[in-house]
Amino acid sequence: MRTSRRINSWTLAVVLILASALLMVAGCGDDQSDADVSAATEQEQIVADFLAALQDKDIDAVFEMVDMASFVGDVPEDQMEAAKDHIAAQMFDYESVEFSGIRMTTEVSDSTALVTLTEGTIKVVNTDGTEETIDIAEADPMEFQLVDDSGEWRLAFLSGI
Questions:
Q1: For residue 160, is it within any domain?
Q2: How is the chain classified by DSSP, letter by letter?
Q3: CATH code assigned at 121
Q4: Could you tell me the pTM of the whole model?
Q5: With 80 as the cut, is the pLDDT of residue 7 above it?
Q6: What is the pLDDT of residues 119-161, one digit of tens each?
Q7: Rounded to 5 degrees, what are φ and ψ at 154?
Q8: Which residues of 120-130 are buried (b: 16+ CB within 10 A; e: fewer)?
Q9: Which of 57, 99, 105, 106 is buried most, with the most CB atoms less than 10 Å from its CB?
Q10: Nearest-CA neighbor of 97 among 61, 122, 75, 130?
């Protein structure tokens, strides 16, 4: 059973790493996240918005935050929908994910920030119907690297768990 749990946790980790590798957030708006996340800083709000996009399986919201050139190079406009469909199929390879009671800490330097999830739970329903709940406090650190890009905080390439 433990091996299966690690595989499922690893699947979630890969999803979060892939998704955060794709992200380049343009800023944090006034919108509140649908996920149960406590965000105290601008950098934490960006991570909260990202988690909400994962929870909602909202590829359009993700793509609004993506700098595709930094991840896959220039994608011709006529191929963008196909790319979006392909990435969504990989990113959202689960029935559902729910983040609750999420708390974070943030370390900021001149042009970088590190947001670490410190508390809360992640409930995943896998495509085979199995459920798993991950206690963030007991899991490997879940960290998101952000960079200051001309005054706008963005999730960095290959950031994530």
A1: no
A2: -HHHHHHHHHHHHHHHHHHHHHB------SPPPSS-B---SHHHHHHHHHHHHHHHT-HHHHHHTB-HHHHH----GGGHHHHHHHHHHHHT-SSEEEEEEEEEEEEE-SSEEEEEEEEEEEEEE-TTS-EEEEEGGGSSPEEEEEEEETTEEEEPTT-B-
A3: 3.10.450
A4: 0.71
A5: no
A6: 999 999 999 999 999 999 999 989 988 878 778 777 775 444 3
A7: -135, 145
A8: bbbebebeeee
A9: 99
A10: 122
Question: Would residue 112 count as lying in a domain?
Answer: yes
Q: Which two tokens mark 55?
A: 């929870």
Q: How many residues does the structure list for the chain?
A: 161
Top-confidence residue, 156 or 99: 99
Amino acid at 50: F
The domain of 20 spans 2-155
- List pLDDT tens digits, range 108-124: 998 889 999 999 999 99
Q: Which residues pair with 13 in a beta bridge?
A: none
When pLDDT is averaged across residues 84-94 and rounded to a whole number, the result is 90
* Residue 22 within a domain: yes
Strand partners, 114: 107, 145
In a domain, 41, yes or no: yes
